[in-house]
Amino acid sequence: MSTPLSRRAFLQLTLASLFAGCLPPKGSPDFAGGHSAPDAFSIVTPLPPVTTSLPDSLQPPAANKTAAEFLSAWAADNYDAMFNLLSRSVRSNVSRDTFRAGYAQAFTAATATSVEPYLLSLLRDGTQAQAVFRARWQTTLFGPLDFDYSLPMVWEQAGWRVVWTQALILPQLTQERRLALIPDQRPDRGNIYDQNGLGLAVNGPRVIIGIVPGQLVDEAEVLTEVSRLTAVPPETIRNKLAAARPDWFVPIANVSPEVSINNNDLLSSLAGVNRRERTARYYKAGELAAHLVGYIGAIPTDEQQNWRLKGYQGDELVGRTGVEAWSEDVLAGKPGARLAILNRDGKTVFDLARTDAQRAGSIYLTVDQVLQADAERILGRQLGAMVVLDSRTGFVLAMASYPRFNPNLFVNGIDQATWTALSTDPNRPFVNRCTVGVYPPGSVFKIVTIAAALEKLNLTYDASFYCTGTWNRLGDQFVKTCWLKSGHGRINLQDGLTQSCDSVFYDVGLALHEINPNILPDLGRAFGLGKLTGITGVEETTGLMPDPDWKQKELGESWFPGDTVNMAIGQGFLLVTPLQIAGLLAAVGNRGTLYKPQLIQRIANPANTEQVSQPQIVGQLPVSPENLAVIRTGLERVVSGPRGTARKAFAGAPFTAAGKTGTAESGQEQPHAWFAGYCPAESPEIAIAVILEHAGEGSQAAAPLFRQMAEAYFDRQTE
């Protein structure tokens, strides 16, 4: 006959069984990502069960509350709240900063992004208690990692408090051990190609030409010859050498193996010049498409922590701008690494997790390298931008901005003098004027205004206006002029667009304001202005589509009739990007479809899979087919009509086109010059927007560049 168990023994056995059921066996693959941790996960011996002679404040719910608060604070990264729950003895030996740093260092090593702890159970013996909880660490490199913990607590006058040790960061940690991320292998960076597979940013064999200052014999000759071969100015080389120790190898520039071989005799004869081979990033076309491709560079000090949480060591070169930055995850691949517990001597005690390296992918852009080179050649050294879109898909075929920069300058670490010169250049060579540059659109905006006249005022193409060269319907103190000082005389609405008569659009703007001052801003947004286009791979800005609410909020002023009148001719507070204007003209040309501009054609993943971009429709112009036909005819006559503002620039052109000139006030003596349009006029393939800063009349400065770009496109199609 069996002997009955006492209540005390029964509770001990039950709780011990409960703990055994909650915890996987020691060394189980359920722990630490499937790797054994021999001494990490011991089962806590149950404490004696609860007695009933203590006050209610000592009963388990109070201890449960402290444990729950501690874990909730951890999940919220509230280390101050956690520290406040520690026992007096712990807080007398561990500072708040040390406590916080312990968790931060472990999180960084594990590439952890969050932790999800939850209580499993709790035991108490008088003034001591022990909770058991599980925590899931979400990590970038290793995925989710689960750990089981014991949380000891003690009763103090203020309530239950945590008896903290390093084991509450990770069960395997002690004062003699630390957590470390051990990198195994980092894959080579993926390449960036144009739509035809021509390399724009590639990895390849390069030769570093460098100088050891202490070995120099004839410094002047070395500086002259090395500068000639690398295109690095002699003064820049001299500054690098001055900052180095005599025995340092000072890298000057990467060159191709061919350059090294072809100049072998010379380089070998120059005392102090050394060469080293390496695989390095190489921007084959130099400045070509620099604003699109971007560049790689060192991780800044203030970003180190964020990059370490992604599994980087901190000394890598990473994408800093353009597609290099946007597709960093694809181009960098995933490094191989292991998460290990090290002893005081730095030797591995055991591994918690391991991940293998994953090969990098490559990016194919929608741009055509030949067309991109044409666009940059045609734009030349004029401040401004040129955007070429496929009007049938929204794909970017070329995007040129001047001034530019050479991404190769950053591969070896740019010197301070060069960086200072670039970053302080008032012409801002790092700014992609196509997507970040904002300008008043001038008369190009009259496309939106005539659409409002046709749709909202119910005017017809032959609605009559009269232009004397001056316009005073806002009062004699607010007299405005037309660009044609002598006036256009009697003129209809459609011809007003073709001849860009300001007086016609002043009248339209005032009429719209009298109905509703929000009509024109709302229609502008429907044409894609004042908001992001959604392009990926490069930075962009919204521009500004002002309205009465905006003016009241930002300037504390009411919206006046003059504001709408100014907007009607593309002036006032209105600001647009060249990419937005190109998209607008593409939509007019394709009869109303607004496409999302796209720069990324496809992403080639290492697993032999591809993500291929498809055209994405983001809207339809709110204009009837009949009214859109009126606008299109007016734009065709800008180019080919007897009084079109761009007829001279397109005389004898071997293709048909439609577009709009624009001359926008810039705040300086010379206005900005615009021309934007599409071609062929009857069945458009491309839309082009050209903006030249402070260049004068759009018809004289920008329209000829549009024509040259269109000719380059059609020549490309016949190759």
List the helices and strands and how they pair.
Layout: H1 7-22, H2 60-75, H3 79-84, H4 88-93, H5 96-110, E1 112-125, E2 128-139, E3 143-156, E4 159-162, E5 178-185, E6 192-193, E7 199-211, H6 219-230, H7 234-242, E8 250-255, H8 257-262, H9 264-269, E9 273-282, H10 290-293, E10 296-298, H11 304-308, E11 317-319, H12 322-326, H13 328-332, E12 336-342, E13 348-355, E14 362-365, H14 369-379, E15 384-390, E16 396-402, H15 416-423, H16 446-456, E17 464-467, E18 470-471, E19 480-481, E20 489-492, H17 493-498, H18 502-515, H19 519-526, H20 548-555, H21 561-568, H22 578-589, E21 593-595, E22 600-604, E23 610-612, E24 617-620, H23 625-640, E25 658-664, E26 672-679, E27 686-692, H24 698-701, H25 703-718
Parallel strand pairs: 6-14
Antiparallel strand pairs: 1-2, 2-3, 3-4, 5-12, 6-7, 7-8, 7-9, 10-11, 12-13, 14-22, 15-16, 15-27, 17-20, 18-19, 21-24, 22-23, 25-26, 26-27
Molecular structure report:
This protein has 719 residues and is of the alpha+beta class. It contains 25 helices and 27 strands. A hairpin with a 5-residue loop joins strand 15 and strand 16. It starts with 6 loop residues before the first helix and ends with a helix. The N terminus is likely disordered.
- Fraction of residues in β-strands: 15-25%
**Structural class, from helix and strand content?**
alpha+beta
Query: What percent of residues adopt helix (DSSP H or I)?
Result: 25-40%
Please state the second-level CATH architecture of one domain: 3-Layer(aba) Sandwich
Instruction: Look at the structure and give the mean pLDDT.
Output: 90
First CA to last CA: what distance? Answer: 101 Å
Task: Give the total of beta strands.
Answer: 27
Unreliable segments of 5+ consecutive residues: 1-55
CATH superfamily of one domain: DD-peptidase/beta-lactamase superfamily
In the CATH hierarchy, the third-tier topology of one domain is known as Beta-lactamase
- Main sheet record: 7 strands, mixed
